[in-house]
Every structure is written in C-alpha cells, then in structure tokens.
Amino acid sequence: MNTADRLPGILRRMAMVSIPMLIFAPSGALSAAEAPASLTHYRCYICHADREAGVGPAFADVAAFYRGRKDATSKIANEIRQGIRGGGPWHMPPHPEISPAEAREMARYIMSLPRESAAPLKVDRP
Q1: What is the pLDDT of residues 13-39, one digit of tens each?
Q2: How far apart are CA 64 and CA 62, in angstroms?
Q3: Dist. CA 95–CA 42, nearest whole Å
Q4: Which contiguous run of DSSP H or E holds residue 3?
Q5: DSSP secondary-structure letter at 79?
Q6: In angstroms, rounded to a whole number, what is the distance separating the alpha carbons of residues 60 and 50?
Q7: What is residue 84's three-state secondary structure?
Q8: I want to staple 47 with a disulfide (CB 3.0 to 4.6 A). Which of 55, 67, 117, 126 is the partner?
Q9: Average of pLDDT values for 52-61?
Q10: 3-9 contacts, C-beta under 8 A, 24 or more apart
Q11: pTM of structure
Q12: CATH class label, 29-117
C-alpha cells in the first residue's frame, strides 16, 4: 500500500484528534495561566516579578506603561525576543529561543496584570 492509498485513513485519524483540540483548547499556544510557567522556564523571574521591581521592572509596571496602546502586546513580544538596550548599565538581553507565539502569550499575560498592582513607571524607550 503506498502513501496515497493510506492518506484518507491518516486524515481521518488526524481529524479525530485535531477537532476536539480545536474545540476545547485555548485560543493561543499557551493560556494566560500557563504563561508564568514559560516565564519561569526562560528565567524571566531572575530579573522581573509580577508586582515588584527587581533588576528589571515589575511586569505590572510594564503593563501600566503600555496600557492603552493598540500595539502593546506585539511591542512587548518583540522586546522579549529582541531585547532592550537602555542608557544605563543594565539591559534586557535578546531571547531568540522564545518562539513568537510564546512571546505573544507572555506579553498577553503581562498585559493582563491589573493596574492597581503597578507602581508609577517612567521608562525612556525608543
């Protein structure tokens, strides 16, 4: 039996697995609840925390800085992957190992943090 003869059976099995995943899976590669795990996996919490500034700003402060911008999620995702070079001695290194989809989900999580947990933040960014 060649590949062309087996194709309908393969497609049928794929559909049986894929359709339930499409119905019950969250809309992104990661849900907001899973984003903290990826933030831990990629060691983001070494410099950042959700609500307290460390070497880097708190994620809630980043969300407050970008709140109201239509491109906030894509801008944060881009900064996660490309890094940020500031005027001071510290910078955020690039993380090209993080996929664009993971970076977007991390950015969505960051933007989901409530305003009341953020401290006033002034950041000079290009």
Answers
A1: 544 444 443 333 334 444 455 567 899
A2: 5
A3: 9
A4: helix 3-24
A5: H
A6: 6
A7: strand
A8: 55
A9: 91
A10: none
A11: 0.65
A12: mainly alpha
